[in-house]
Every structure is written in structure tokens, then in C-alpha cells.
Amino acid sequence: MFAKRNDQYSVICHTRAAEDCSENGEWCDSEEEAQEWVEQECWIFSGEGWFCLKCNYHFMQNLAKTRRDKGMNSMLPDGWDDDLAVGIDTVR
Asked: Can you tell me the distance from the alpha carbon of 62 to that of 72, in angstroms, rounded to the nearest whole number?
């Protein structure tokens, strides 16, 4: 979860899914400071590790594909379209 270099610490992006992934957060003097930095930068904690905003954007752009890849389509009721907007009421 943390990388250490020259007595400094950085949080590692857990997923590294985006082509332009940040890979690491800012280098800080302690693990606590590194974790505070990713929290302030709005990195997302998945329960397994932190992932950067670029990877989050990548996942949000590819939700339907991710759902198919993880076999989550079976969670959809029969007859539902694969489009994520189906069934979502929007306020206009």
C-alpha cells in the first residue's frame, strides 16, 4: 500500500488500470502524511487499497464493460438493457 524511497513514503495506486495512472501519491515524510495526502486529493479507498482519480475516471467510463467482465450481468433482471441509464429516472 505504501512505497518507501529515501526515507519518504507514498501511497501506491492499488489498481493501476488507467493508461495515465498516477501510480503513486506525493512523497511525504511519514505513512500518515502520505495517507492524509491521498485523502485530501480525494483518492478512493476500495477496502483493498487506494486508487487514484485517473483510475476512478477510467472505471466510471467503462462501467458496462467492467460489469460484463466481472460476470455481474446476471444481477440484472431479465429483459434489462445493458445500458447503465436504463431504469434511472432523471430530473430535467
From this structure: 14
Distance between CA atoms of 49 and 1, rounded to whole angstroms? 6
Q: What count of Cα atoms within 13 Å lies in the side-chain half-sphere of residue 53? A: 6
Domain presence at residue 79 = no
Type of residue at 57: Y
Half-sphere exposure in the Cβ direction for 32 (13 Å, CA): 0
61 located within any domain: no
Which pLDDT tens digit goes with each residue over 18-72? 999 989 999 999 999 999 999 999 999 988 899 999 998 888 888 777 667 766 6
Structural domains counted in the chain: 1
The pTM for the full model equals 0.64
Contact 23/5 with Cβ under 8 angstroms? no
